[in-house]
What does this fold into?
Amino acid sequence: MPEIQPLRPGHAPALLAFEQENRAYFAASIPDRGDDYFARFDERLRDLLAEQEAGICYFHVLVGAEGEVLGRINLVDVADGGADLGYRIAERAAGRGLATWAVRELCGLARTYGLTFLRAATTLDNAASRAVLARSGFAVVGETRLSGRPGLSYLRSLADFTAPRTAPR
It folds into this structure.
């Protein structure tokens, strides 16, 4: 059964493997991280962990039974009771409800971090992410552009949040 864990230094090898193995898959629906991301991965991870320690962001990984990273789910730009939600799921784990479960689970974690609402955005052509956000209680609040592509902005109040169902296998 998958588990959401706060990002920590020990995740580095599995996280890098996840990003490398899924690079082309992710680039089909979201902007590519670029070669520099991979060349400076360790430095970038240290920066993320420092942001997490400062309470600016909350980074998480979805870890499978063998310790492999199946996804990332993050709360960034934490301020004034809210944060921006971002997530990505491995191609081999897609289509099983993992993203919806993880987003719902993170809504519960967000409440423990003292957050009262979450923001999200996705491109119009990313039907899977739009479905995950809708199933997770996010409401469309406007239009946006993401890396030059048309998209939608979402908002989710955590005031009415209820605990998620069990994790998919």
Remarks:
- The longest strand covers residues 69-79.
- The chain has a mean pLDDT of 92.
- The CA atoms of residues 29 and 50 lie 28 Å apart.
- The longest helix spans residues 98-112.
